[in-house]
């Protein structure tokens, strides 16, 4: 059985829920008290993906405070994919996703020189306040070449594992293409990602 290691970055402003997301996905729970990440935290998730393949996800939870951004080039090195998170109830954290994506694209590339696959996640979907229209999020995804975006509630455990399954599927497809050909296709930019809670592979669509 083969083991495939992927380094996945989790980035975004402070307090959007990055550490809680990693804790929920890896350990099935969240921390009750908030402690800001200092620099970077690490976590490992092992996923049986097929009869002959196991995926090992090395998750890098990057601190969202401004004073740590000078170190991101070091943290980004060798990453295969990225999750950029924002708070669905905060316009400021959504606006900051452009800064994070530009920083990522300028410092981290695939072996073929193209940007790494990146998905945009809006956390706290259990709350009612929504200052950013879905159409605006769709446009940002297309303009900045995200794979797509989805809503999540780490607190209620909605779309946590499903989002990562979607990203792993993209990573495995890229891995197979890279193994079979020196030319790796870059995924097209997308909009809203339709996820379900039945642990099937999700389909991507553009939200109307």
Short summary of the structure?
With 208 residues, the protein is an alpha/beta fold. It has five helices and eight strands.
Folded structure, characterized:
- With about 210 residues, the protein is of the alpha/beta class.
- The chain has five helices and eight strands, in the order E-H-E-E-H-E-H-E-H-E-H-E-E.
- The radius of gyration is 16 Å and the shape is globular.
- The chain starts with a strand and ends with a strand.
SSE layout and pairings?
Blueprint: E1 2-12, H1 18-27, E2 40-50, E3 53-62, H2 72-76, E4 81-87, H3 91-107, E5 118-123, H4 134-143, E6 148-151, H5 160-180, E7 193-194, E8 203-204
Parallel strand pairs: 1-3, 1-4, 4-5, 5-6
Antiparallel strand pairs: 2-3, 7-8
Q: For the report, how would you describe the main beta sheet?
A: 6 strands, mixed
The end-to-end distance, rounded to whole angstroms, is: 42 Å
Q: What string gives the helices and strands in order?
A: EHEEHEHEHEHEE
Number of helices: 5
């Amino acid at each position: 059985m083969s083991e495939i290691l992927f380094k996945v970055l989790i980035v975004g402003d402070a307090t959007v829920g990055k550490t809680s997301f990693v804790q929920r996905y890896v350990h099935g729970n969240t921390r009750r008290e908030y402690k800001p990440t200092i620099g970077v935290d690490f976590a490992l998730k092992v996923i049986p993906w097929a009869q002959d393949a196991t995926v090992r996800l090395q998750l890098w939870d990057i601190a969202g405070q401004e004073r740590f951004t000078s170190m991101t080039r070091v943290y980004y090195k060798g990453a295969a994919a990225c999750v950029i998170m924002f708070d669905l109830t905060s316009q400021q954290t959504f606006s900051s996703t452009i800064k994070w994506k530009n920083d990522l694209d300028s410092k981290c590339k695939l072996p073929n020189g193209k940007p790494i696959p990146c998905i945009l996640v809006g956390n706290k979907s259990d709350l009612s306040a929504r200052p950013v229209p879905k159409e605006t999020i769709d446009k940002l995804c297309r303009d900045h070449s995200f794979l797509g975006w989805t809503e999540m509630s780490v607190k209620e455990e909605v779309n946590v594992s499903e989002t990562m399954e979607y990203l792993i599927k993209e990573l495995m497809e890229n891995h197979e293409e890279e193994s079979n050909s020196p030319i790796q296709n870059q995924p097209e930019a997308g909009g809203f990602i339709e996820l379900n809670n039945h642990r099937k592979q999700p389909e991507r669509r553009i939200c109307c």
